[in-house]
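Database export, one record per block. Field names are fixed; values are copied verbatim from the stored entry.
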Amino acid sequence: MVGVRRWVASAAVSALACGTAVGVGAGPAQAAAGAPTGLRTAGQSCAAEAPGPYLSPARLNDAQAVVLTGAVAEAGEDAQADFQVWDVAKPDERQQWLGGAVAGDQGAYVQLEDYSKQLDGVTYAWRVRLLDGSGASGWSDTCYFTVDRTGGTEPVVTSPEYVDGDVDLRGAIGVSGTFVFTPTTDDVVAYRYRFYSGEASQEAVWVDAAADRLGAPLTVTWAPKVAGYHSITVYAVDRAGNLSQFAEKAFTVRETRPSIFSADYSEFGPNLDFTVGKPGAFQFSGTAGGTASFEWSIDQGGPSGTAPADASGKATVMIAPTRSGQQTLTVRSIDRDGTKSPSRDYSFVVDDGPIVTGPSGDVIVGTPVKLAAAPRAENVEAYLYWPEDGGLFPRPVQKVTVPARADGTAEITWIPTLADRNVDGLRIQSRSADGTLSVPRYQAVRVDEAIPAVTRSGGDAPGETATLTARTRMPGVVKWTVQVNGAETVEQDVAPAADGSVTFRYTPTVRGYHSVGFVAHNAHAATTLGAAGWTVTDAPRITSAEFPAPGSGRIAPGAFTFTPRLPGTVRYEYSIDSTGYVKLPALANGTAVTPAWTPAAAGRHLINVRSYDAKGYASTIASYFFDVAPAAVTVTAVAPASVAAGAVRTLTVTGTQLRAKDVVDVTPAGGKPITGTVRSTSADGKSTTVDVNLAGAALGKATITIRPYGAGQSPVVRAAAFTIIAAPAMRATKAPTITGTVAVGGTVRLTTGTWTPAPTAYAYQWMANGVAIKGATGAAYVIPASLLGKRLTVVVAAARPGYTLNRATSAATAAVAKGRAPAPTARLPKITGTAKVGRTLTADPGAWNLKPDAYRYEWRLNGKLIQNGSVRTLKLTAGMRGKKVMVTVVARKAGYNDGRSTTRAVTVAK
């Protein structure tokens, strides 16, 4: 489409130079002698006048270039075609295009591939001459062409019947309509259009139609074949063959065909309750008012007829199909004036295939598949079945006949073999006595080849026996065929175990690839081969705790352990990082450990090892790659986020390249580092567990520092890695209690109460009226006299490592009462001295169970108190002659009731 110029860079096919070429004249000239003739522009004859043909390079060839050619009569070995191309509006700015030249109709040839020199909308002139050595021919005639790369805007599409106006009331099936395509540019020569319908989308094809003249509109007449959604898409085609933007109009075609419905003979699938000869209900409904009747027929000579419509334009017809299989019912509605509507086709299947029951889905090779078939057709005498092989096209049909019983039923037995591995279903049909075949019934099956599953242990080294066990899903295995290393000539038949499996032992004698395959057989078929393959090597095994593979080691000393596979290994040779091989004798058990080795640098390293036996035979070389990464240590997280102070706590540090030999420090806020004990490190180096004693640690954010082992390792610090919080306090769930006699001299005892968690230690303090009793810190306490009248309590302190000590106080006792009165022991009080007038009697207080603080003596004469006090003696007078004297000793002790004991009476002599 002629329009605005565009500049786009592209690669030129040959070396070009812009500007005025040698020998360029002021304007076009007629062809000189020896100049190329038969000039063609993009395959078209030379246009001697502007604008020439309109060309769209993108539509011409894969190179998307205008091709210029000319016929050459003769050309030397080094001849060149010298093309000049110029914008007719700029004759002084000429392009030079050089290319090889040969004799022939297109001996002078060039592709104008530079987009920036073939601008859209520009008319170009061109000519060509031959350059041969130092000579040049004259110029050819001048030809013209115009570059047109764009197709312009979309045309305008109108239709009074279908596109414009009220589409629901205009047009119908079979009603012709006119569609007018009007261009929006003046260089349109043709149109490309397509009618599309949702119901018959497969019939949508593109149509190309030429305009009567340049820039003329086009009128198309079209009648719809179906109803519902439709659209028309239209392109305008310009002189260069460019397509415009497309115009699309959607419209609806009014439905005039009757509708058809049947639940008995559904178009969505067969109803097995209905078959040949059984009438089913079909409902017809007219779609326009005035429907009087319907005419109907079934294809291929099936039944036909007419049916009157009811007042609502509907009819129900009972139709009994006369044959089985796919068939089409065609229905027209007829108006009261006799006008017939377009026909409606209704496709359905009449299914008289047998009822088949039995296994479906996966079936195992060699296992009989038993299917029961019951007839749905008349006079069934036999059944035919055949497998459908999904791997073959067309699918072969090899039918097997099974006679029916007298009642028309039969049992079909099919035994799949490996030849049936691609079968995806069975087809079963009945055959009546007159030879009529029913619709086939499909039973989906997939054949499981029962490939043996093979497991292996051992056999990795020469001389080491491999034990292989094979199992299969195929039942009834009667034998196994074992194939060693793919050689059918060494197959062995082996009897199965009781469970159908087989165990086979094989000892490889040489290194290299080995395989053992198994095929199971039962009475009907064999399975597909199942095999175990592995590589036997005599290369030694290499392990290293310090330099794991996979994993990463450090720039620190480490060793490698070699374990032999070669029988009789007596020594090793190893090389680290392609240095010279080092000899290393084997220990008695064939193993060896290298001396400690320290990597010189980080990165990937390699150790190669081979072993030798006593005869000097060398094993295969074992290669062991490992990484050393001094700068890869990171700490990404510490768990838990909060840790209680007061005891040894376990932290989990997450990161990369962590190792058990790392030193882990925890620095509390404002405190000194606490070095932890690494308990374990994961094999991948991504986590480490460490125990840290946080007894006495300050609360707040704590920092984790990893000091990696090995050279070149800088400490890795994670500030505020976790928070140290106060340890949880012990909690009393039941208060302490006091038991015992709450009296002076009495013993009271405590119970500690109940605590959570269970304490590991207790401390006690007895209190009197809330004041601590000095020294009273035992589990029992003897009440002194000084506490008389006071109330006792006890404070119990419970402790457990990792928890804050807590205290609980018992309930107070009653006031401390006086103690029990002292009582004399075995030596009772008595009166000593001679009971005669003039003499003095003395009271002996005796011995008491409590040492009294003091005694008081009550002397009585014939029961009458005559002296009371601390005096323990009594002077006998004449008035006392013949009377009885006794004394009561009162023992007094602070805090205790008084004790009393009365002596025997003595009589004063006359």
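Remark 1: The chain has no helices and 74 strands.
Remark 2: The two ends are 174 Å apart (CA to CA).
End of record.
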